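[job 4471] stage=fold_predict status=RUNNING
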Amino acid sequence: MTHPDLLVGIHTGDDAAVYRLRDDLCIVQTVDFFPPIVDDPYDFGIVAAANAISDIYAMGGTPILALNLVCFPEDLPKEVLYRILQGGADKAQEAGVLIAGGHTIKDREPKYGMAVTGVISPDAIMTNAAAKPGDVLVLTKALGTGIITTAGKNDRADRKVLQGAVDSMATLNRAACEAMLAVGANACTDVTGFGLIGHLHGMMVASGTSARLQLSAIPLLPGVRDLVTQGIAPGGTHTNLATVGAKTRWHPDLSDEDKLLLCDAQTSGGLLISLPKEKAARLVQELSARKTMAAVIGTVSEQAGAAIEVAP
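[job 4471] inference complete, writing structure tokens
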């Protein structure tokens, strides 16, 4: 469906929809929810909320309002539901987001997330469709949450390793968004279920460009490489590798484990920012000043063959 005021819709697979209310104001809308990826109900709540709110930041917007989405079994203690919602409420408060209500249904498996509304000026919208040849790519969180949380579900993750993944997922992308807007960027997306390769591929296709990544420059969460070498990876990660990974030009020195890491299905991952090379140093400074990870992981070039090439 098209409309003159629908400035960003479904056509480029972007992170959220943007609708113009007037010449100087747009709303940004997104929704996301999923089953528990960690055992602690409170942690599940904060991670799910941070993940849902992230799409607003990826568009360059300011989140303001949310509605809870809840599925919950009748046979689970209500205290579990309370802790999930408390986690979501605390993370929303940190983001300056008002939870105005929501909807709950009975289900055999708990699920939680949010529909989130943000605001943005029409001339400040960031999309995934404007990367330019010559840009550099900057990532603001380390990879590996899918592999680590899968190991955690099977009691195969060290407690510190699992906590590191939870801390990363619970971190809002607000500071990364602020730094990006302060410097000015061409395109942005957040790295979630399709993994780094999947979301970068979407950006390159939408922008009509291609990219080259440097594996050695891509940050990984502590402990994740050990886990993937043990054969641990979620189904979504394998699916990502079988689909988008098959369209990627991998250097022959890269292992299957390397490929899985770059295709790992993330939850509440960082922002992937494409910006002019001359702005990269300032973006790194702005991110560092906000105590946010800044990794320059690759470059954007003219479309030629494979949308993504990965070097060691």
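[job 4471] summary: The chain has ten helices and 13 strands.
[job 4471] exit 0
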